[in-house]
Amino acid sequence: MIPSFRVHVFPRIPGRLGKAYYALATTHAGLGTFTELAALYILLSAGTQVLPGKLRITKYKPWMRSVLVLWWGVLFLGIATYTRWYVPGLFRK
Q1: Which domain holds residue 73?
Q2: Is residue 10 part of a domain?
């Protein structure tokens, strides 16, 4: 999705961010990036000794559930972005 975002959406930000075509893609990319970084933080904290002790988390369940909810949001936004971009006639342009 990065090449499509870079070519079709990124050059038109922030001028056309009010349109659903650009807003959905930008929100999906932003939330997806944040969620990916959060998941990597949990992985580094739980599965390795890379992070110092003060940065590690001990109660994983709330963190993992939060990231799961964020992934569901990213999935929903991805489906909405796909339908907005590739299903003709579903939305008015």
Answers
A1: 2-86
A2: yes
For residue 36, is it within any domain?
yes
Q: Are 36 and 70 contacting, i.e. CB atoms less than 8 angstroms apart?
A: no
Instruction: Say how many C-beta atoms besides its own lie within 10 A of residue 82's C-beta.
Output: 14
Spatial distance between the Cα atoms of 4 and 24, rounded to a whole number of angstroms = 13
92 within a domain of the structure (yes/no): no
Structural domains counted in the chain: 1
Cβ count within 10 A of residue 29: 19
Q: Indicate whether 91 belongs to any domain.
A: no
- SS3 state at 48: coil
Indicate the pTM of the whole model: 0.77
List the chain pLDDT tens, one digit each, 93 residues.
Answer: 667 766 767 666 776 667 777 788 888 888 999 999 999 998 888 877 887 888 888 888 899 999 999 999 999 999 988 888 888 776 665
